[in-house]
Amino acid sequence: MHAPRTRVQRRPVHGVLLLDKPLGFSSNDALQKAKWLLRAEKAGHTGTLDPLASGVLPLCFGAATKFSQMQLDAAKTYRATVRLGIRTATGDAEGEVVQERPVDIAEVERLLSEVVRRFTGPILQVPPMHSALKRDGKPLYEYARQGIEVERVARAVEIHALNAALAADPQGLPAIELVVSCSKGTYIRTLGEDIGEALGCGGHLTLLRRTRTGHYGVERAVTLQAFEAMDEAARTACLLPVDSLLPDHDRVTLAGDDVSRFLSGVRRRGGWADAAQVAVFGTEGRGLLGTAHASGGELIPGRLLSPIEIQQIQESTPHAANTAQGIEEATV
Prior knowledge:
By secondary structure, the chain is α+β, with helices and mostly antiparallel strands.
């Protein structure tokens, strides 16, 4: 008989974990592993990263899940390797080879700078069949596994910056190295395939690593292996505050009765300039209260933290607790 599984006692956890997702893990696999290690009650990720890709994946816990859309919409940066001369069914190294062509290195060098210009800025992409995009409620990759190809409409995306350099893959075969900064919804596998076609020889992705999403860089991320080796206190200390998801928001601080009224969804009047995105904080160690927008001198509530979430964040953040205690002592 199998020993009974130990039931994990969940706890409230609030913040953002920058995970350096390993190869072979889906985004949800990585999320569930981190959630289990933290014993967190609530968690969500900020957009999928393919199992064949590694790199920065912000994971949101507790109150942070209310603002995860900010990262879904953020620009992304990737480093990729495209092996030239071979097309595969999936656009990456996992797929069956469907075409091989010779690679004229001199021709690739001649065309490369022009191809980079052509694929920089607004472009149209046809989503790959091996993607999670849904058709009639079913992901495209499920159709692809059945050998069915469905019609896909080209989508507009934007390549903010693109650098490409001739290189060789680990086997010494011709390849190009790409560094791509792009809008949400960009398929790097498709970009690699399209660039290969534009170079006249085709290609497929052999490496993909996300180095940045929004203002979060992979240099600040922790690997799953390192995270697993930590004790719970060290894991919790890895979390960034919830408001790290709101770097481009104007900041407003409320005090006294304005705090409770704002948290109840009541507009506040003040001398605020019009602003589409506002992060609202409370005095006395209350920290982030939620988001709002300002119009006509009014602060109009958007996504709000609950009083219990604010209390839990205070209790789990020594600095916030000490600040609140210091204010209370100073006012006695």
